[in-house]
Amino acid sequence: MTAAPAAPDPGYDLPALPGMRLDEIQTPALVIDMAALERNLDWMRTFVEERGLRLRAHAKTHKSADLARLQIQTGGACGICCQKVSEAEAMVRAGITDILIANQVRDPAKLDRLARLAKRARILLCVDDPGAVPDLSAAAVRHGVTIEVLVEIECGAARCGIAPGAPARDLALRVAAAPGLRFSGLQAYQGSAQHLPTEAARGEAIARAETVTRETLRMLGEAGLACDIIGGAGTGSFPFEAASGVWNELQCGSYVFMDADYRRVLGADGNGFEQALFVLGSVMSRAPGRAICDAGLKCFSVDSGLPVVADRPGIAFTGISDEHGHLADPEGRLAVNEKLRLIPGHCDPTCNLHDWYVCLRDDRVEALWPVTARGKVF
Amino acid sequence: MTAAPAAPDPGYDLPALPGMRLDEIQTPALVIDMAALERNLDWMRTFVEERGLRLRAHAKTHKSADLARLQIQTGGACGICCQKVSEAEAMVRAGITDILIANQVRDPAKLDRLARLAKRARILLCVDDPGAVPDLSAAAVRHGVTIEVLVEIECGAARCGIAPGAPARDLALRVAAAPGLRFSGLQAYQGSAQHLPTEAARGEAIARAETVTRETLRMLGEAGLACDIIGGAGTGSFPFEAASGVWNELQCGSYVFMDADYRRVLGADGNGFEQALFVLGSVMSRAPGRAICDAGLKCFSVDSGLPVVADRPGIAFTGISDEHGHLADPEGRLAVNEKLRLIPGHCDPTCNLHDWYVCLRDDRVEALWPVTARGKVF
User: Fold this and answer.
1) Is 0.85 exceeded by the ipTM?
2) How many CB atoms lie within 10 A of CB A147?
3) Which of A109, A299, B72, B238 could form a disulfide with A295 if both were Cys (CB 3.0 to 4.6 A apart)?
């Protein structure tokens, strides 16, 4: 009998256990560089504190209750955003008590679930259609709760949102008059601005959003409606919203982790944010000039491009299939079982593929965090 | 108090419950048309039975123990393929007892986990490197088990696999001589042939794979090594492997579900296979000429293109973001809360995003099947 290597036991379902070295992690695994994460959290807390702005961190990026708690306790966040009712349910179960569903919810059964959540947490929801008000109001009344509403305006992304100006004002008046609802402000998120390739283009897109948001605010003021929240902004554009004097609640998400696409867009210094998220992969096969690693389409979302190899100049990620990553290795530097830190093209949908974050400090596993709301899309 | 709509309770974490109508499902949800699935299973069982071939269905497509069991009990499968040790662990826990890991596994800790699995199931593994034999043999000996080995040859896909011919023969001899291992045959899977756009191109790719596989078999025969298994073939190419007289064990996976990419490649009739897998989405916002549904990048893998709208001529899926699907609706046919059946671009990584299959028969929920090995990538 030879000695057994250190397979995680009884951790059959876990990629690692606390105390393990990086090279003992069963790959592929989603890993966080905790020191980099903490610096990103500090950077953003300082930014909003210095400007007297609120941060409502977007939890759709990470879907982690542990990280949401950290953002609220030490990262300067007043609460979080979620995108789906089931995501908010998972966060409320984990003890988060201030949640904006930064999205439209129309199914009466989902609205019923949302109203039940409002018994345990402050719940805010975006609305972009007068037709949405009766069902939402009925759900709130049925459960004896108040649901706060942000009127979502279409400010350039051509996604959800009512037309700014008079239609938005009229919707706000309707919300304010509905039993069980409170009008709490505007949602003015310009999603398509986040990944524009130049700072100038992002600034122009936010300037256009600012114009229509200001005009809507003016009309709301004339109608006697105050906005507690003017929400929006993402990791690609928030300096513009912050400088505008219009927005008061920033909804950035990706800043905690960063990804290859934001690094391309924001430049190598990431506007101050460091890459804190990686998929750790291992080489499992070699051939002249190339190698194959164990991280494929079930570890990465490739909607914004292939992963990028960190730390290893001369090695390129060149292709991907379901279970394999293709690496160009012209000088034959990679050995079988070698570990690679891979930067996801797009962090949000990549995190949603994994069940666990392996939290690393000085290349030791400090903790495993569940991806609390993984797969909570409904 | 108005009457509460039918939210699944206590099914907070479930998109549906058995007995519900299609319009009561909380969307987005991954749904199976059970009648179409059963016809696909029947088609393939008949195909292999008529030809005296074995089917080792690839479970990486669905990751469902329920469906694997159905494939073995009524679908003509002798066992299943998995791609990762953790995937096989999940299937063994669910009672599946004949599993080929159709991939390379090199980490000694993973090989230890694999050898432990071989106490409870027949386990086969692909090997493409003489350097892999000592660790695998040691793990088998340590746990007192026999692990069967298929020598994987590179037959055109430029992924894993040792060079065919003499290198493959020498590796087979080395496997056959190693304690705890049994040489059981060849893995000759031409992955890149599956999605070639024409039948002729797929046929040519498999003809090239056939040539090198035959030559390797000849050399193995000269060396006195018999192959119980010559494995390979996928949903795009299996008629060619089946007709060759070389392969005897087909490893098709996607045939159970189909997807938009295979429908493009194989033609509208899917070579006999019907679309049995959909993501059910709901419209949640409207604007002139377009609509937004609730199914985005966390519901679909878009590596092989956007989803396709079923049943609704004139409605096109035109864009996708994390939580939103963009629909062109030039004639304004879509209403808020309307349900849409969406065909995934690529079934395997799409299934891996979801926790549940909602099994439908005559538009009623018949069962919920867990995606047993979801996220089991290590």
Assistant:
1) yes
2) 26
3) A299
How close is the nearest chain A Cα to the Cα of B77, in Å? 22
CA nearest to B106 within chain A: A284
- Mark yes or no for CB contact B323/A60 under 8 Å: yes
Any idea what the CATH number is for the domain that residue A42 is in? 3.20.20.10
Q: Per the CB < 8 Å rule, is B104 touching A303?
A: no
**Are B244 and B315 in the same domain?**
no
Residues A138 and A249 in one domain: yes
Nearest alpha carbon to residue B372 among B12, B62, B37, B110: B62
A64/A352 Cα distance (integer angstroms):
10
CATH classification at residue A329: 2.40.37.20
Measured between CA atoms, the residue of chain B closest to residue A82 is B323
Our count of domains for chain B comes to 2
Phi, psi at A318, each rounded to 5°:
-115, -15
Q: What is the pLDDT along chain A (378 residues), one digit of tens a residue?
A: 455 555 545 456 899 999 999 999 999 999 999 999 999 999 999 999 999 999 999 999 999 999 999 999 999 999 999 999 999 999 999 999 999 999 999 999 999 999 999 999 999 999 999 999 999 999 999 999 999 999 999 999 999 999 999 999 999 999 999 999 999 999 999 999 999 999 999 999 999 999 999 999 999 999 999 999 999 999 999 999 999 999 999 999 999 999 999 999 998 777 889 999 999 999 999 999 999 999 999 999 999 999 999 999 999 999 999 999 999 999 999 999 999 999 999 999 999 999 999 999 999 999 999 999 999 999
Same domain, residue pair B94 and B48: yes
- Do B166 and B299 fall within a single domain? no
Q: How many CB pairs under 8 A join A and B?
A: 201
Return the closest-CA partner of residue A111 out of A79, A82, A133: A133
Query: Is A104 touching B (CB cutoff 8 A)?
Result: yes
Q: Which domain, by its residues, includes B140?
A: 34-255
